[in-house]
Design goal:
Radius of gyration: 13 Å
Strand content: under 5%
CATH class: Mainly Alpha
CATH topology: 434 Repressor (Amino-terminal Domain)
């Protein structure tokens, strides 16, 4: 059961995170380079994450949450929760 929940969480993150990264970046008029600096990752790593090629580490996810307003945090966490519940 734990492994299944972990897989569902990973799947939800893979579906939601890239979309939300790009949405935030475009909405705030930022370049990929600026987002990479804000998340303290290389531009290549950021681009890979935005395109869904790789997933963020816990630090990157935490830094992204800190960039978001409270409302945006709730939205992101709600999308992740919905994705997990849908997969269960």
């Amino acid at each position: 059961m734990r492994k299944e929940l972990r897989n569902n969480m990973k799947k939800a993150l893979q579906e939601v995170f890239p979309v939300e990264l790009k949405r935030y970046r475009v909405q705030h008029g930022m370049t990929q380079e600026a987002m990479a600096r804000g998340l303290m990752v290389s531009t290549r790593s950021y681009i890979d994450q935005e395109h869904g090629g790789c997933m963020p580490c816990a630090t990157t996810l935490a830094l992204f949450l800190l960039l978001l307003s409270k409302e945006e945090q709730r939205r992101l966490l709600g999308l992740l929760r919905a994705g997990i519940e849908k997969a269960v």
